[in-house]
């Protein structure tokens, strides 16, 4: 039985929800091999105070451990936000076959927005690329998170001002 890209993107979105529950930027990723999820990850950068703990990096690392190889040649990575340069590099180096992402990242996207590292013929590996899967839902998850932060910070500033009056 073969699952759809939407099915697996919903699994990546579940990972993003885990990040949100930890006050992390809600980004989630999964690695799928032969219709089986072999790696899961969600952003943990704030929790770990480690710049490399992006959802994709964690999912790739888990998949490599589970498969017993650094080569994920037949794997598909699903991620709720377009991969950044670091994650794109890890995708290329792990030989992932296909990347499916939801929302574009206008500030760091390296799978078509700012540049396309995943399909650059100068590298020894390129990926099939599918963008915009459940894009509206993935984008909303991120924009709602950042809106919530802005509202909270505004309330905190107001409380400080009110206290000082």
TrEMBL record:
<keyword id="KW-0862">Zinc</keyword>
<keyword id="KW-0479">Metal-binding</keyword>
<feature type="binding site">
    <location>
        <position position="54"/>
    </location>
    <ligand>
        <name>Zn(2+)</name>
    </ligand>
</feature>
<dbReference type="InterPro" id="IPR016193">
    <property type="entry name" value="Cytidine_deaminase-like"/>
</dbReference>
<comment type="similarity">
    <text>Belongs to the cytidine and deoxycytidylate deaminase family. ADAT2 subfamily.</text>
</comment>
<dbReference type="InterPro" id="IPR028883">
    <property type="entry name" value="tRNA_aden_deaminase"/>
</dbReference>
<feature type="active site" description="Proton donor">
    <location>
        <position position="56"/>
    </location>
</feature>
<protein>
    <recommendedName>
        <fullName>tRNA-specific adenosine deaminase</fullName>
        <ecNumber>3.5.4.33</ecNumber>
    </recommendedName>
</protein>
<dbReference type="GO" id="GO:0052717">
    <property type="term" value="F:tRNA-specific adenosine-34 deaminase activity"/>
</dbReference>
<comment type="subunit">
    <text>Homodimer.</text>
</comment>
<feature type="binding site">
    <location>
        <position position="84"/>
    </location>
    <ligand>
        <name>Zn(2+)</name>
    </ligand>
</feature>
<comment type="function">
    <text>Catalyzes the deamination of adenosine to inosine at the wobble position 34 of tRNA(Arg2).</text>
</comment>
<feature type="domain" description="CMP/dCMP-type deaminase">
    <location>
        <begin position="3"/>
        <end position="121"/>
    </location>
</feature>
<keyword id="KW-0378">Hydrolase</keyword>
<feature type="binding site">
    <location>
        <position position="87"/>
    </location>
    <ligand>
        <name>Zn(2+)</name>
    </ligand>
</feature>
<dbReference type="InterPro" id="IPR016192">
    <property type="entry name" value="APOBEC/CMP_deaminase_Zn-bd"/>
</dbReference>
<keyword id="KW-0819">tRNA processing</keyword>
<dbReference type="InterPro" id="IPR002125">
    <property type="entry name" value="CMP_dCMP_dom"/>
</dbReference>
<dbReference type="InterPro" id="IPR058535">
    <property type="entry name" value="MafB19-deam"/>
</dbReference>
<dbReference type="Pfam" id="PF14437">
    <property type="entry name" value="MafB19-deam"/>
</dbReference>
